[in-house]
Write a structure and sequence with these properties.
alpha/beta, UDP-N-acetylmuramoyl-L-alanine:D-glutamate ligase, four-stranded antiparallel sheet, 10 strands, globular
Length: 277
């Protein structure tokens, strides 16, 4: 019998269940891989905002990583909220120690409600220690602006920002377009070190039910890479997964509600996504 593919998420816990570790595990389950976790911080949050962030010690993070490394055969992994430079350094050390591949790095810098989830001094650690290990980096537009040090106003800016991010050593970058405020569609722009580029385009959905979209997208991408999909195939499925999750809304909570992680399997259309090359 072929063992189920095993994956890892290194991220923060969301007490509201819509983002972080909780969103990742739900997504892994929906896409048929076995999810393991390393919790970097506990947050007190709900759909209305983040009310507290309680980072774990570096020793606690190391202990979890070592426990996974000693017993599981990971086919892919992702990082989410890492919070500070010390946790980033320990995460990078563990990934290198166990030789884990197919690393998806989702920066998780600012929550939907505006709470800062990555300390300023952690940016350099992210650039210098973690991104050189990444198969793909998945920032949204504000995060890409922070990492590239430039404003993204149009397609030319987006390309230039992606090139600047590639200089950190990440194998590829996909700049997500959900913050572009288009009334027609949402575009995710992909650029690889070898020059390969394409755009994933989906119809724009006007909704506030968007809590955890970045975590969910990167978790879906991780699951598909673990199953041996090419980067293009994995990104296409991840885009379809989040499109379905946004299209079939749950309307939970009084603020930015969570996406519907079960929608991809339950609804046959599974989100309309077009590849533009």
């Amino acid at each position: 019998m072929v063992a189920i593919k095993q994956v890892l998420t290194i991220a923060g816990s969301d007490s509201g269940g819509g983002a972080g570790i909780q969103a990742d595990i739900k997504t892994f389950q929906e896409l048929g891989v076995f999810g393991t976790s390393t919790i970097t911080a506990v947050t007190a949050q709900n759909t209305c905002g983040v009310h507290g962030v309680y980072p774990l010690t570096v020793e606690a993070v190391k202990g979890q990583i070592d426990a996974i490394g000693a017993d599981f055969q990971l086919a892919a992994l992702k990082t989410g909220m890492l919070f500070n430079a010390e946790i980033i350094a320990e995460t990078a050390k563990g990934i290198s120690k166990y030789g884990w591949k197919n690393l998806v790095v989702d920066p998780v810098m600012i929550a939907k409600g505006g709470a800062v989830l990555l300390q300023e001094d952690a940016l350099e650690a992210l650039r210098g220690l973690l991104l050189p290990l990444a198969a793909v980096f998945t920032p949204n537009i504000p995060e890409a602006e922070m990492l590239s040090g430039m404003e993204i106003r149009n397609a030319a800016d987006r390309k230039k920002a992606a090139e600047k991010i590639l200089a950190t050593g990440t194998e590829a970058v996909v700049i997500k377009g959900g913050h572009a405020k288009s009334s027609a569609f949402a575009e995710d722009y992909y650029l690889h070190q070898n020059g390969e580029t394409f755009i994933l385009r989906s119809p724009w959905i006007e909704t506030e039910q968007t809590h955890g979209t970045g975590c969910t997208f990167s978790a879906a991408l991780t699951a598909e890479l673990a199953k041996g999909r090419t980067m293009q195939e994995a990104l296409h499925t991840a885009k379809r997964f989040i499109q379905a999750a946004l299209s079939h809304q749950l309307h939970i909570g009084a603020g930015h509600g969570p996406t519907n992680h079960a929608a991809f399997q339950r609804f046959p259309e599974k989100g309309r996504v077009h590849l533009v090359q």
